[in-house]
Amino acid sequence: MSRSDAIAKIESYFDEGGFIEDLTRRVAIPTESQNPDRMDVLHGYLTDEMQPTFERMGYRCQLLDNPREGYGPFLLAERHEGDDLPTVLTYGHGDVVLGYDEQWREGLSPWTVTQEGDRLYGRGTADNKGQHTINIAALETVLQTRGSLGFNSKLLIETGEETSSPGLKQLCEENKALFEADVLICSDGPRLSPQRPTIFLGARGAYNFDLTVDLREGGHHSGNWGGLLANPGVILAHAIASITSATGEIYVPEWRPPGIPDSVRNVVHNLVIDGGEGAPEIDPDWGEPGLTGAEKVFAWNSFEVLAFKTGNPENPVNAIPPKATATCQVRFTVGVDPEEFIPALRRHFEARGFGMVEAEPAKKGYMMATRLDPDNAWVQWAISSIQNTTGKEPAVLPSLGGSLPNDVFADVLGLPTVWVPHSYASCSQHAPNEHMLTTVAREGLQLMTGLFWDLGETPPVWRH
C-alpha cells in the first residue's frame, strides 16, 4: 500500500459521506464553554465521542482535570510505536462559542450540520470540530493503509479554548514529560485564501485593556453647563486619537515592533489576502505606511478600539455625561513586551495632557505572540509535502493574524509549531451561520493524510 492509496482512501471517506457523518455527530453536541451549564457536555464530548475514536485507533487515553477550578477537562491520547521514532503532538479544541440559536438564518441550526452548495453550516464546523475531525481522520487513514503511523503520536483535546484556554499553560508547565514531543502539527484558524493551502508558524498576541475618564458624579444639563464642564467623551476621544495617526499608524514607540526579519518578509511580502465570498473590502491606506497588506496582518502590530461609551447611547439626553469608557486592543507580534504596553501608554498620555485617562489591563490576561522561523526544517518539510499532495505552493504565514494559545507549545514545551488551517476568513466563526467549505475540507483531508504519511517515511532532522 502506498501514499497514493492512503490519499485515495481519504477521498472516498469524504465522497461517500464519512466526514459529514462524523462532523454531524460532533456538532450535535452543544459544547458551549462560555455557558457554565455545559460542563457535563464538555466532559461528555471527550469521554463519549473523542475517547472511543482514539481507542479504536490504538491510542491510550487519559482524562486530565483542569488545574483551574470550574473549567472543562482535557483529553490526552497517545500511541507509541518506537523509542527511535519522532513524536508529533496534535492539538484541537472541542468547545465552541455560544450557539446564538435564534440568530441563525431560517432553516439553519447551530447544532445540525446543513449542507448548502459548498458550505457545511453548524457551530464548530470551522472552529474547531471540523478541523480536528480532518486531522483525526487523516491519522486513522494512514494507520489503516500502512498498518502503523511510522511515528509516535500524541493528541491533546481541550474544552476551554473559547474562554482563553484556562489551565492549559499550567497543565503543560506541570506535566512537561507527558507532552514531550518533537513538533506540534495541528489545525485552527483560516487559510490565506479559500483556494490556497496555508501554513502558519505562530500567532500574534492579543492584549485587551480599558480606558476610563471619570470626572464627576452624575450628568449635568448641557444648556446650563455646556462650555463650562469638561466632557469626558471629548477628552477620551482625543486621548485615543493621540495613539495613532488618522489612518492607524501607531505612535506609541513601545507598541511598535523593532522591524521585520528578512526570513519573515521574504515569505509574506507578496501574499495576497483573500477572505473569499462575503469578505469586507480592504482599506489599502490603513495601518503602517510602507507595508504590504500581508505584512500589516502577519508581521506588524495593530491598535483597535473595540467599544466606546459615554452617556446613554440607547436613549441620549441633553446632559454632559460624567464618565466615558473604551475597550481597546493591541494585536502584537514578537519583539515587543506586552508588560510595557500600559506603562508606556500612561507615559504617552501624561506627556500630552491626558493624565486623567485611566488605563487598566483586562482582567482575563492576554495571549503571547509566537513565531517560528520560516527557514526551520519542519517548515520546509511541510511545504514540500503539501505541494506534493496538492500541486500547489502553500502560503506560509510566520504568524496568524489572530491569537491562539501557541505560546504554550512554543515557549512552555519548546516545540517547533506548524499549523495547517482548514477554514477561511469569511466562515462566520463565532457568529451565526458558521460554516466550513467542502472544497477546503476535502483538500485538507488529502494534504493532512499526505503530511502524516510523509512523517512516517521521511521526517526532517527531528532530534532536539
Written description of the protein model:
By secondary structure, the chain is an alpha+beta fold. It has two domains: 3-203 and 369-455, 3-Layer(aba) Sandwich (Aminopeptidase), CATH 3.40.630.10; 205-257 and 301-361, Alpha-Beta Plaits. The protein is built from 13 helices and 19 strands. It has helices at 3-15, 18-27, 39-56, 129-146, 168-174, 222-225, 232-241, 262-268, 293-298, 341-351, 377-390, 406-412, 438-455, and strands at residues 60-64, 74-79, 87-93, 114-116, 119-121, 152-158, 183-186, 198-200, 202-203, 205-214, 220-221, 302-310, 319-320, 323-332, 358-361, 370-371, 395-397, 417-419, 435-437. The strands form six sheets. It has a six-stranded mixed β-sheet, sandwiched between helices. Strands 12-14-10-15 form a four-stranded antiparallel β-sheet, with helices on one face. It has a three-stranded antiparallel β-sheet with strand order 4-5-19. A hairpin with a 2-residue loop joins β4 (114-116) and β5 (119-121). α1 packs antiparallel against α13 (438-455), α4 (129-146) packs across α13 (438-455) and α11 (377-390) crosses α13. The longest helix is centred in the first third of the chain and has 18 residues, at 39-56. It is globular. The mean pLDDT is 95.
